[in-house]
Amino acid sequence: MSSVAIGKEKGFGATFWDYLTTVDHKKLGNMYFFAGLLFFAIAGLEALMIRIQLMVPNNDFVSAGFYNELLTMHGTTMLFLAAMPLLFGFMNAIVPLQIGARDVAFPFLNSLGFWLFFLGAIFLHLSFFMGGAPDAGWTSYASLSLYSPGHGIDFYVLGLQISGAGTLISGINFIVTIVTMRAPGMTFMRMPLFTWTTLITSALIVFAFPALTVALFFMLADRMFGSNFFDHTMGGNTVIWEHLFWIFGHPEVYILILPAFGLFSEIIPVFARKRLFGYSSMVFATILIGFLGFMVWAHHMFTTGLGPTANAIFAVSTMAIAVPTGMKVFNWILTIWGGSIKVTVPMIYALGFIPSFVAGGVTGVMQAVAPLDYQLHDSYFIVAHFHYVIVGGIILAIFGAAHFYWPIMFNRALNEKLGFVVFWLFFIGFHMTFFIQHFLGLMGMPRRVFTYQADQGWDLFNFISSIGALLMGVGVILLVVNMFLSIKSKPLNTRDYWNDGRTLEWAIKTPVPFYNFKQTPLVRGYDPYWIEKSEGNKEGMTFAEPIGEIHMPNGSILPLVMSIGLFIASFGALYHPDGVSWSIPVIILGLGITVASMIVRSFKDDLGFHVSKEEVIATEESLYGKGGNK
Ligand code: HEM
Ligand SMILES: [Cu+2]
Known about the structure:
Bound molecules: protoporphyrin IX containing FE, copper (II) ion
Largest sheet: 2 strands, antiparallel
Low-confidence stretches: 1-12
Number of helices: 19
CATH architecture: Up-down Bundle
Strand order of the largest sheet: 1-2
């Protein structure tokens, strides 16, 4: 058995090499979380710079060109490199525990998915230091991005291709994990909602990301090899980019919001101390949202001239999504209704989420009315809308879930008092920043402008909006302080930290051993841990097998090496059109490294390692003392 096992599983205790070679879903979950947090901080800083620039009219805090780069990188980073990895952090850390598994189906691929995401993100951010970041908006419409000078857009195309491949791999991994690795008795209609939303989200990833991959390849070919997919002067069609982008782009927002919904469906029953209301309808609503999410993309293109018939169809399909979403909102409210509410930090995020998200959802239905959208399109009303659903939905879920799952992920707790301070700073700041933007939009302020003339009625509202953004910034800084303070805090070494856990992840004593469960649990119903607790079962679990030998995968450096190869090759591709002599050798070197490590992997007879019964007992005692995980 490798030395990684006994005694090293103490939250932050692993070595740097362990993190470079790990295939353990728990460690990868923590890595996704902190990498996502890093890019959230960077994109948050970009948002603050945007708001400082717009704080007063005719401002020159940043130039027009740099503003376009800030705006583009803020949106792109927040969606692809912050919100998604943060959610992948929770999916990796929690879903295998929720279904009673020892890891995901493809641990090696899981590591590859992480490193492709991370190196793709680094590649994109190097653009700031190598001639300028992409500047055509996160949507990178071809009518602008095709002709954008410099390599900014090429960094966007190649960076998102690499990180997108990582996301696709993760999506496939979670589908196979959830379908094939559930513990005995964990039928689909006994799965926790976070597992369900992870499954549907992964299916959306598998169907949506290929559209983006194809669009990015067309953009690459047009910019680097002179093809004309989107160049209308050469017979191409710039609207095709918009269709391809939004066939991916709208499902992308559900790829983000569904796991957030899932997190709140875990948090609310625990602190209402009541079973989730309408479980089956919640599952049905999740599937329906996922399905309808693919039928609405052209609501981003009502003003593109698709014609009244197409607009009407997409208007109706967009409004239809409000029905299953509304079902979820009522189920959360009815779960709280009549419950004995414990207002902890995770719960106050849930209580803040419901009205905030509904406000964002309602303006979404307004914009679905195509004639009204002619008025609102590309105005600050739109900016306000999507920040209400994104920040009011996804970010509040991520912050609440950080408090909720920190005990399981790091065997420590975040400070509750500081947690409430962060919530109110961020919550008040959020509404101050974006509520007023609805009115800026109704008063005609367009989005994506780096400044504006004075005395158009926009001055005060922009000032208030910027103050709100600063408040959010202070809130996020204090949240990060809380996280780092927890490192120094006393390890919890406990089970069911919130005392009212209902699902399997709360049945394991922290720190969670590298093999998760010493014996595979037997699931006897929905909310399995709650069932065991209510029957007074001290172990917290009924086991499907006696204690015995466990098989686990070995770590490997190869996923990182494979990703580094693609990272290197991308530089060659990026500068090839400039006619530099070193581009082809660099492409060959990079692809060579990737292919070579794939060959090494396929020939290396790595069947993992065995953990004997004695070693399992020894690990339990080393983690929890005599008597182990009781
Ligand atoms: C945390 C505080 C945030 C602030 C203060 C903020 C502020 C802004 C502002 C002012 C704009 C509009 C700029 C313009 O049109 O000229 C913008 C655009 C955008 N934001 Fe945020 N934002 C925040 C968080 C987020 C989050 C969490 C996400 C997504 C996860 C996000 C995604 C976007 C996107 C996609 C755009 C559109 C960019 C474009 O037009 O290409 N923002 N943000
Ligand atoms: Cu949409």
